[in-house]
Amino acid sequence: MTKRLPYILREKTRHGKTVWYFRVQDGPRTRLPGEYGSEEFMAAYRAALAGEKPQDQTKDDPRSLKWLLSQYRKSSSYLELSPATRRQRDNIFSHVLETSGSAPYSAIKRSHIVDGRERRAKTPSQAGNFLKAMRGLFKWALESQLVDVDPTDGVKGPKRTKTEGFAVWTDDDVAKYYASWPTGTKERVWIDVLLYTGLRRGDAALLGRQHIKDGIATIRTEKTGTEVNPDTRTTAPHTGGRAYWRHALHSRQHRQAPHQGELRQHVPRSVQRSGCAEVSARTTQDRGHKGGRGRCHGG
Hints:
Layout: E1 8-12, E2 18-22, E3 30-32, H1 39-49, H2 65-72, H3 76-79, H4 83-100, H5 110-119, H6 124-143, H7 171-180, H8 186-197, H9 201-206, E4 212-213, E5 216-217, E6 219-220, E7 227-230, H10 242-248, H11 252-255, H12 260-274, H13 281-290, E8 296-297
Antiparallel strand pairs: 1-2, 2-3, 4-5, 6-7, 7-8
Helix pairs in contact: 4-6, 5-6, 7-12, 8-13
């Protein structure tokens, strides 16, 4: 085992993360960044050993892309986006920051935006969402007079290849899935919520017993803020209608139902295990609408 460096203290946070400090006898503690032994760690250790004051790690360089993003997230342009859109763009921004967070935002040019789009070209939807996210950021920055030129201006969106998409499920597909996942399993709750309410994936993941009164669900959608009212009084007749929903949406399985990002992964896996056709959340929504299910009032 490698001998630990002098004056190093090891601690664990309440979240289980290991952190390292430099301290000589009863002197002040200095937090050391990065993993033990990494270049970042060793540079900070040598500086502390030489008596140099640590750099303030809590403040971002006001010239960096990371700083620009932190300011954008406080703006009305960002906060007016729907929660689902903010989550999507935050995911894109996190990947951008990993590679370019310390770069001066004023140095970002159209060629950099095009390169980012092209790196995602194999998945046109990802390329398009990347461009939308960066366009929103720099449109705000231009209006705020933080940049003189919007590097996304004139950058074309990716061409989308026309496909037939996912096939809408038949009654046989539904029956096969039900045979694999009986009432009482969380997989059954997931598919029934999607199938019988017609809700988008993000809204379906939020639906709970608190939203239902007298058999009518009331929920405000994440994307548009519109109130919709799926009618659960006559849906899922094979399971007992309202009694089923009261139990399913109050059950431990549904309280632990995943958020929409996980729902995207778990539903296709449960479908694959049942031997049904490939599925997306929209597949089951379309099946519900075309089969006369998922009726909504006022939405």
